[in-house]
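tool=predict chain=A
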Amino acid sequence: MYQTDPPLSPKEVLPTMYDLPSEYPEDSGLPDEFHLFQPQLLRSTFCPANYPTEEVFVATDLNLYYDLRHTLWYKRPDWFAAVGVSRLYEQQNLRLSYVIWQEGVAPFVIVELLSPGTEKEDLGQTLREVNQPPTKWQVYERILRIPYYIVFDRYTDKLQAFQLVADSYHEIDVTTSRVWMPGIQLGLGLWQGAYEGIERLWLRWYDERGNWISTQLEQERRRADQEKQRADKLAAKLRQLGINPDEG
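tool=predict ok
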C-alpha cells in the first residue's frame, strides 16, 4: 500500500476486530471450572464507582492484540478490565477481540490465574526467544503499561499483585490479602465464601468501605429475604390483633 498524505490512521489500514478473531477452533483444551467461575465472579462484582457502566469493558479469555507492527501477535489474559472505553465497540457491537490500535485505551487491570504450565511466564520468569513475540510480562509491563497486574495461584491460594511505578512493576504488599486501586475506587481481595456452590477462597472486588461487592443474584436474594422478614413481621402483628393472616 502506498503512503498517503496525510497518512491514513491505523484503524483504516490495519486488520480490524473482524480480521483478528477471539478464539481459534484448533486450540486444544477447554478452561477448567475454576477458570470459568473465577472470571465470572470478577465480572459480576467489578463496578467502578467513578465510571458509568457504559464506559467499562470486561473480558475473559479474549485475545488482546497489542502491536500494530505485528498485527497477529496477541496475549489472552484470563481476565481484564478497561475503563473509559465504550462497553460496546463503537457503541454498537460486542467485541470479537480487543485491538489496541482501534481502542486507543489499554486495560487498567489484568488478572492471571496460575496454571502449572503458565506459572513462569505469568510471573515474568521466562525470557524472550529470538524472533519470537515478547513475553506476557513484557507486554503488560513495557508495551501496554498496565497499571495493575494481579496473579493468583488457586493451588496455594497465593495472591501476588504488581503496580506499574515509573517504567517497571513493583510488587505490592498483600499481607492483608487486599489491593486497593484508587483510579477505579475499587479493591481486589481474597474472599472466603461459597460461589456456584463451591466453598473456597475467591478473588472478589470490594468498595471503599471495605465491603464486598454483591453479585446480582446475591442482591436478589437479599431483597427476597427482606421482603419475607417484612411479611413475617406484618403477619405477627395481625395475629396479635386476633386476625389470622392466612385466611383469605
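The chain has a mean pLDDT of 89. Helices lie at 10-13, 33-45, 100-103, 119-122, 136-143, 216-240.
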